[in-house]
Amino acid sequence: MNENEKPPKIEKEQGFWEAYRGCTEENRVRPDRSPFYVKWAKGFAGFIPEKPLKDRSREDIEAFLADLAKRPGIADWQVRQAEYALKMLYEIFLPNYHPEKKTPAKTAPKQTGKEPKAKPYGFRDRVIPGEVERKFSSLVEAIKTAIRTRHYSYRTEKSYLDWVRRFIAFHNYADPGSLDAANAVRQYLEYLAIKRGVAGKEWKWQYVFPAKSLSVDPRSGKVRRHHISENLVQKAVKEASARAGITKKVSCHTFRHSFATHLLEAHYDIRTVQELLGHSNVATTMIYTHVLNRPGLSLKSPADI
User: Fold this and answer.
1) DSSP per-residue string spanning the chain
2) How does residue 37 score in pLDDT terms, banded at 50, 70 and 90?
3) Which of 11, 28, 76, 271 lies at a CB distance of 3.0 to 4.6 Å from 6, suitable for a disulfide?
4) What's the CATH number of domain 131-195, 3.30.1050.10, 1.10.357.10, 3.30.200.20, 1.10.150.130?
5) What CATH superfamily is the domain 8-96?
6) Binning pLDDT at 50, 70 and 90, where does residue 299 land?
């Protein structure tokens, strides 16, 4: 065994907890909080180490939570969080967790251009909790890193990851790197728009700013209404700034900076501004306070209120 190679048991255990973490994030737990859920679940696993998780009873869970509540430095909200972590572990994750048996390495499947076969349990893009994290943990982490370096919000990160999981599930959990990207994406989009029939019925699939004229969809060749061109919006903003006599360069993104600046000038909390702008790190939001020549939050004297 290499020095860098992990023992099979440790590697299997890490894969289990990584899959559980992915399951929590798929079920509305923020990525920055999911490690705490793993921490509580691991603590419960070590509470009765000689007893497998699947064989534990309600009394075992209650005993763990009671013991946790007695520990110094543990608040009530942490006990409630631990209880919810165990609820998710037993009600969502474990019933759907089926470790993949070791099989000889297989070559990547050939692309035939045919659509994936329908799954027996419903929609083709239904995700098995934690399955994507278990099989493609490095890919998931790479996507998270790419999203966070762009300072997108946690809500956006969760939405993007949900779509990635559904896309991979739609293609029967095949390695995304082995797929013909253009063909694979086209199949999934057509499935959502045509086979599931959601595009013409559900509000979330409609464009908020639709174009005035119809155009040909390059994927299906059908005539449809697309969204308004980004260039038209930029052009309208430029013309409006010219009519207002503004000589500085103005773009749509300028409104974002102005919005943040006005909120801080109105003494809104920095955390509120961070959430509205979708910044994952408050340090990014603090840049606006330096623009205002205010190193910190501006506080009013009680006499001024």
Assistant:
1) --SSPPPHHHHHHHHHHHHHHHHHHHTT--TTTHHHHHHHHHHHHHHSTTS-GGG--HHHHHHHHHHHHHSTT--HHHHHHHHHHHHHIIIIIGGG--PPPP----PPPP--SPPPPPPTTS-TTPPPTTHHHHH-HHHHHHHHHHHHHTT--HHHHHHHHHHHHHHHHHTTT--GGGS-HHHHHHHHHHIIIIIS--TTT-GGGS-SSEEEEEEE-TTT--EEEEEPPHHHHHHHHHHHHHHTT--S---HHHHHHHHHHHHHHTT--HHHHHHHHT-SSHHHHTHHHHHTT-SS-----GGG-
2) very high
3) 11
4) 1.10.150.130
5) Tyrosine recombinase, N-terminal domain (1.10.150.130)
6) low
